[in-house]
Design brief:
Blueprint (H helix, E strand, L loop, with lengths): L17 H25 L20 H18 L1 H14 L1 H14 L1 H21 L7 H9 L18 E4 L14 E4 L1 H7 L4 E6 L3 E7 L2
Antiparallel strand pairs: 1-2, 3-4
Helix pairs in contact: 2-3, 3-4
């Protein structure tokens, strides 16, 4: 009996020779693979939120939705446990301050409107606290008199360290009921003022700006 495709004599009454039989097997296998791939494309798993293709067969969401969901859950956890979230953030910053500073800088550059809104809200709160405390304010003459106490005649020095002062610091912070009056303001350098911030302590800087709390401001 000859092969039905190439007319070569076949053994054992087979319809095809070994060469044609192997070629037929390969063709059928390729057809099955193409059909299976087409079926998978038609039945691809979709994201449950945006209907985009999921990034894997077992995933329920695409990558952007996964990232957004993590952000939402992170904000919810932070709102439910503010103290724990603040401690976690501080520990992360202390572990790698340079990377965190770079990340915050990039975020600020990418979100200038949010930065402006944050500063605007902070200034509104500060003005409201000053109004509630009935702060009389510090006139230029009163500020000059305060600076004379920390001046050597040429330079006004920081009240906390040995650097030239370029900012005004409230000894008792406005956030904790301090008033904007001559008895509560001192000249300070930017580094000391930023480090002290709104702490309820009177800080003294020793040596190279190393701070140690020595007296709690009542």
């Amino acid at each position: 009996m000859n092969c039905v495709e190439c007319s070569v004599p076949c053994r054992y009454n087979a319809r095809r020779c070994p060469t044609c039989a192997a070629a037929r097997v390969r063709v059928r296998r390729n057809e099955r693979n193409r059909a299976a791939a087409a079926a998978r494309r038609l039945h691809v798993k979709r994201c449950v939120e945006c209907q985009a293709p999921a990034y894997s067969r077992t995933a329920k969401r695409c990558r952007p939705c996964v990232a957004e969901r993590r952000r939402v859950l992170g904000r919810a956890r932070a709102a439910a446990n503010p103290g724990k979230e603040k401690a976690r953030s501080r520990a992360k910053y202390r572990a790698n301050p340079q990377a965190e500073q770079l990340r915050l800088k990039r975020w600020a550059q990418a979100n200038p409107e949010k930065i402006k809104a944050t500063y605007r809200t902070r200034n509104h709160r500060r003005r409201a606290r000053l109004c509630d405390a009935c702060s009389p304010g510090v006139t230029p003459a009163e500020w000059a008199a305060v600076c004379e106490q920390f001046s050597d005649g040429e330079t006004v020095w920081c009240a906390y360290c040995e650097k030239p002062a370029n900012t005004v610091d409230h000894v008792r912070s406005i956030a904790h009921g301090g008033r904007d009056e001559p008895d509560n303001v001192v000249p300070a350098c930017g580094s000391c003022n930023s480090s002290k911030r709104n702490k309820r302590l009177l800080w003294q800087w020793i040596g190279k700006g190393i701070a140690s709390a020595c007296l709690e401001v009542a």
